[in-house]
Specification:
The complex is a heterodimer of chains A (194) and B (168). With 194 residues, chain A is α/β, with parallel strands linked by helices. In chain A, 32% of the residues lie in helices and 13% in strands. In chain A, β5 (117-121), α4 (122-127) and β6 form a beta-alpha-beta unit. In chain A, α1 runs antiparallel to α5 (157-173) and α2 (58-67) crosses α5 (157-173). Chain A is flat. The mean pLDDT of chain B is 90. By secondary structure, chain B is of the alpha/beta class. Classes of the chains: A alpha/beta (194), B alpha/beta (168). The interface between A and B is medium-sized, with 11 and 13 residues.
């Protein structure tokens, strides 16, 4: 007996034909709109994050599903996956990072221009995962600062989307002065950067 | 007549006599050992002899036996005769405090990287190797991780509660 179809059996009218992002709060009048510069910058940044996938193992396969049509990271303004660190905003580390690869991850991070964010996907990138052994880095936060951790082994694409939306939240709300602050400089110095 | 374990054993015994010991044939694979100073002579003989012709070095590995005092480290050579398709295993034992073994890299080019790997994980010092340094682990590693006195787990990790893993 065929499996009964459960989804997409009734046609739903499309409510809005194109997904639109809400504009920032502001004061509007005839012919002008006044808002905070940081809100506008945040809005622009968070909806055009260029990810740099650093995929080393099975989490990378989940990321491929995430980039495919079914889950489609492009809906979040991130269809432009770049392998050039200098043009990227978000370093997505996906998979086991061996200790020998740690300097390369750090080099890629250093080559990215500020402002930059890091997402650690999966148990291995976040904590070493099951690979509690002499050759594996016990979490990439030992070498670079991480903004969002996505748990799972590997996480489902929905979980990565959720993590990505958390990154978007951070990006949209970040103060324009954060990267020049003393606290940020201290954070970087604790990783031996600059 | 095709080469067999008996012929190999006979030829080796003729050449080296009582110097070769520990003869056994686990799963049909001829295995023997010798004094560690003889390793190059035995390998050279196995390589050069027109009948034996063990010209392919499949693998070099080491084994750590902490309970065998004086011969804690075993270095194992796996050799293959590609003409008769026969494999043999040749072992030497060395003291872990003096882990000097002659390098086979001049005889078998394949030994170059294999000996580097064996050095990397067990600290066997291959005398005469052209470039004996770590090959797989990070360069600044300070120990030989496959020796049994070192725990497998990464010691930098502080978030692991031993009780949760049933080993307190």
């Amino acid at each position: 007996m065929p499996r009964p179809v459960q989804y997409n059996i009734t046609e739903k009218p499309i409510e809005t034909p194109i997904g639109m992002v809400e504009g920032p709060e502001g004061f509007t009048g005839e012919g002008f709109f006044a808002s905070k510069l940081s809100d506008v910058v945040g809005l622009a940044r968070k909806n055009s994050i260029w990810p740099l996938p650093f995929a080393t193992s099975c989490c990378g396969i989940e990321f491929m599903a995430l980039m495919g049509s079914h889950y489609d990271l492009a809906r979040f303004g991130s269809e432009r996956v770049s392998f050039s660190p200098r043009q990227c905003d978000l370093l997505m580390v996906m998979g086991t990072i061996a200790k020998k690869m740690a300097p390369i991850v750090k080099q890629v991070y250093l080559q990215m221009a500020e402002p930059r964010w890091v997402l650690a996907m999966g148990a291995c990138a976040s904590s070493g995962g099951i690979f509690d052994t002499y050759s594996v880095l016990q979490g990439i936060d030992q070498i670079i600062p991480v903004d969002v951790y996505v748990p799972g082994c590997p996480p489902r694409p929905e979980a990565v989307l959720d993590g990505f939306m958390k990154v978007q939240d951070l990006v949209g709300k970040e103060s324009l002065r954060r990267r020049n602050s003393d606290r940020y400089r201290e954070l970087m110095e604790s990783y031996g950067i600059q | 007549m095709a080469l067999s374990n008996e012929i190999i054993k006979q030829k080796l015994s003729e050449k080296f006599g009582e110097d070769l010991t520990g003869w056994e044939e686990p799963y049909g694979m001829l295995t023997f050992s010798s004094n560690k100073d003889l390793n190059l002579k035995v390998l050279q003989f196995l390589y050069d002899d027109p009948e034996l012709q063990f010209r392919f070095l499949t693998d070099i590995c080491a084994v750590h036996y902490p309970e065998k005092k004086g011969e804690e480290l075993a270095v194992v050579y796996h050799l293959h005769n590609l003409i008769d398709n026969i494999r043999i295993r040749f072992k030497i034992y060395t003291d872990i405090n003096i882990p000097d073994v002659f390098s086979a890299s001049a005889l078998y080019s394949a030994a170059n990287w294999m000996e580097r790997e064996t050095y990397d994980f067990y600290g066997v010092n291959f005398v005469g190797h052209p470039n004996l340094k770590r090959i797989l682990n990070v360069d600044d590693m300070e120990y030989f991780p496959m020796r049994k006195e070192f725990p497998l787990e990464d010691q930098t990790r502080i978030d692991k509660d031993d009780e949760m893993f049933g080993r307190s």
